[in-house]
Structure formats: C-alpha cells, structure tokens
Triosephosphate isomerase
Amino acid sequence: MTLRPYIVGNWKMNGTRAMLSEARAIDRAAQRYMKVEVAVAPPFTLLHAVHREAEQIGVGAQDCHANQDGAHTGDISATMAADAGAKFVILGHSERRQDHGESDALVLAKTGAALEAGINVILCCGEPLEVRESGDAEKYVLDQLRQSLPEALESASERLTVAYEPIWAIGTGKTPTLDDIGEMHAAIRGFLVDRYGAEEGSEMRILYGGSVKPENAREILAVGDVGGALVGGASLTADSFMNIALAAGEAEDQ
Ligand SMILES: O=C(CO)COP(=O)(O)O
C-alpha cells in the first residue's frame, strides 16, 4: 500500500469563527482531489467547529499535553483534542520548541500521550540557520528524531508522519535547494527504516515544511522521499492551500 500525498495546513495562532468559511471551501475542494489527503490543524478554539464542517478533510490539533488530564491550567490533553474531533496532532514544532522551551524528551512524552489517546502524530524537526551553515544539519535533525520518536510502534506508517521544517525557511519566503531537501529527506528515510524496519519505515510519509506556496509546491513535492507538505501561511486561504493540493496531485502523476 502506498499512502497518498499528504497536504496539511497548520493555521498556527490564526483564525476566529470567520475562518470557518475557508474550512468549508477547503473541504469542498478536497472532494475533487481524492488522490491527495488534505488536512488542517486549526487552533483549539476552532477544532470542534472545523471538525463538524469537514466531510473530506482530516482535522488535527497543534499541540497536546503529555498527560491525559489533571491540574494543568490552560493546557489541552490528547484525549480532549480527540474528543473535539482531532485525528492527529502536530508535535515538536519549532515555534513550540522556541516559545515554550519544549525539549526532545517532552516531545517524546507528548507523542506517547497522543498515540495512547488514539490520535496520529505529525512530528516536526528542523535545524536553525547557524546549524545549516556549519554543515551539521543532518546530524542535528537525526538527533532530534532519535530522541523524540518512540523506539517501536505498531503500524508506524499510519500513526506517525515526520515533517522536516528548517527553521530559517519558516515564514521567510526562503527554501532550501531541491538537492538539500532531497538529501535531508533521504537521511530521515534511512533513520526511519533503521528504527521501524524496512516495511513501515519506507512507507512512512516525510513532509516538507517552510515557505511552501502554490508557486514552488510542485517542484518540492516531486523531490524523492517528499510525501507531502506542512503549510503555514499559504494554508490560511482555501484558494492558495488547494492550489498546493493540486500541485501535489500533479507531482504524483509525473
Ligand atoms: O511552520 C510551518 C508549518 O508548520 C511553515 O510555515 P510557512 O508555510 O508559513 O513558512
């Protein structure tokens, strides 16, 4: 079984109920692009409302706590996100690592909590600019994955997706060269095969994220071992987001 290309919109801290019309438009358009799996991760406040609108698209959360309940003011657990309709959660995003000091150990604990609650995980990794410039990006990213992914996991290819998002490419309009993306994704693939075995590890999707736009999506998505995209800014309007989904379908046909 080969998984479809996966195009995921991370709305970050954007969107009030006025955004529900975009969610509806994304859902309607997704019904025409069945060869691509489309999903959005709205803020928690919109999770349930987007879930109720969505017939075709997957809906997920942008974070969860490492515990399922308890005295953690202001936090949301994976069980609660699942109850609101989340089928997946984005974990280890560089903005959470930076803004909230999240360590690999915490990301690992959150991953365990999400899987236990029955939702899938999109695990983010990616290097800062100085690491890229020093030539150590691959080691940095593989170390992140080694420490934040579970040692073993049944049906790993269905339950776990990795997103490679170089920090310096997020929201900047800059992207790595296609060769650099290909090399990093190949290195991540090697790691996943080592950890989860040839069958699951070669099937798992590795998304690229960082300034993906309709204009560059097709060439990025055609790179080997790129199984989809995690899209920030360009996922906030149905028009640009679904043009990326369209490009994913075209790249698949190439
Ligand atoms: O961080 C990202 C998705 O998680 C990427 O954001 P941009 O697409 O806005 O660069």
